[in-house]
Amino acid sequence: MPLVTPLSQDHDQEVTELAKFFNETLGFCPNSVLTMQIRPAIARAFINLNKAVMENHGRVTSELKRLVGYITSANTGCRYCEAHTILAAQRYGGTDSRLAQIWQFRESDVFTAGEKAAFEFALAASSVPNAVDNTIESELKKYWDDGEIVEILGVISLFGYLNRWNDSMGTSLESGAIDAGETLLKQNNWEVGKHQS
């Protein structure tokens, strides 16, 4: 049971309009947003930040951003965000082999050297204490320019907020996200945990 009960999807008209963004990315409006709209300014600011972070400017693809979000969320233990990000990665073209091998990325040939550098950065940046060091920075800069690094760190930081929000709130997982977690993350022993309805 969540700490705070989400409001209905049509509670605030402006939030409802902004939240249509999630129909593309997930196929539904997340319960996290429905909880945030108890203070509509927080929901509006979050959705606008999410849209800005996930906007494509070039080589950091929608799928890669969701995989970076997944690694960030799994590293912090947020089952809610793990299910959302793996579902969104699939919706943005993540193949079965890429989704299944995400935790073997270091040895896998389905990821480029640049993607692997982004994943290492996500792991280091989402660790407490922060583990970004000169080696990770140097490897990242081999493959990504400053704008792309800002995009990647934007995703990591966005999910840092969401991981704290959803794990502390105990946000209930939506059925589509549960299906994605149980199907796409079964090899990782994913479970709903505290995010049950």
From TrEMBL:
Gene Ontology MF term list: peroxiredoxin activity
Pfam families in the record: CMD (PF02627)
Organism: Pseudoalteromonas luteoviolacea H33
SUPFAM superfamilies: AhpD-like
Domain named Carboxymuconolactone decarboxylase-like: residues: 40-122
Organism classification: Bacteria, Pseudomonadati, Pseudomonadota, Gammaproteobacteria, Alteromonadales
Keywords tagged on the record: Oxidoreductase, Peroxidase
The protein, known as: Peroxidase
